[in-house]
Amino acid sequence: MNANRTSDTRLTPLNVGTIPDGWNVSKIDQVASRVTNGYVGPVLEHQTMVAANKVRYLQGFNVRPNRIELINESYVSAEFDRAHPKSRLEENDILTVQSGHIGTTARVPKELVGSRRCLRK
User: Fold this and answer.
1) How far, in Å, CA of 21 to CA of 118, rounded?
2) 3-state per-residue secondary structure call for 47-75
3) pLDDT of amino acid 37
4) 3 occurs within a structural domain
5) Which domain, by its residues, includes 84?
6) When you count CB atoms within 10 A of the terminal residue's CB, does the N or C end of the chain come out lower?
């Protein structure tokens, strides 16, 4: 049983799966102001494990259920960051993994604002 769910939680079967009673089902464009992919493309030439003067680069394996895990940290150059502004993270962004642990989702905390996101596994 999920630790957040009590035995008296009532569930409702819907076409999207079973959800707790009282929850609403909405389309993403009804609850999000913007939906976008992270950076998709070659990054190795811009990537390093050294943080000095670099921008943190999150990958799919950093996204764990309901949290960002800073393992195998990597960074990209400031030039790379400026060239790809659409994948710069903001507080409370929601990240969902599209390969590897598909569907794993976490919210971006304040301390990771300005980091980069990508879709690489």
Assistant:
1) 34
2) EECCCCCCEEEECHHHEECCEECCCCCEE
3) 84
4) no
5) 39-117
6) N
Cα–Cα distance for residue pair 79/85, rounded to 1 Å: 11
Within a domain: 7: no
For the chain, the first-to-last Cα distance in angstroms comes to 29
* The residue to which tokens 């707790």 are assigned: 20
Tell me: pLDDT of 120 over 50.
Answer: no
Q: What is the mean pLDDT of residues 75-96?
A: 89
Secondary structure (DSSP) of 23-40: -----HHHH-S-----B-
Q: What angle do CA 108, 35, 69 make, to 5 degrees?
A: 25
CB–CB of 48/72 below 8 Å?
no
Q: Is the pLDDT of residue 68 over 90?
A: yes
Three-point CA angle 98, 102, 104, nearest 5° = 100
Rounded CA-CA distance 11/110 in Å is 33
The pLDDT of residue 6 is 53
What pLDDT, on a 0 to 100 scale, did the predictor assign at position 70?
Answer: 92
Domain count, the chain: 1
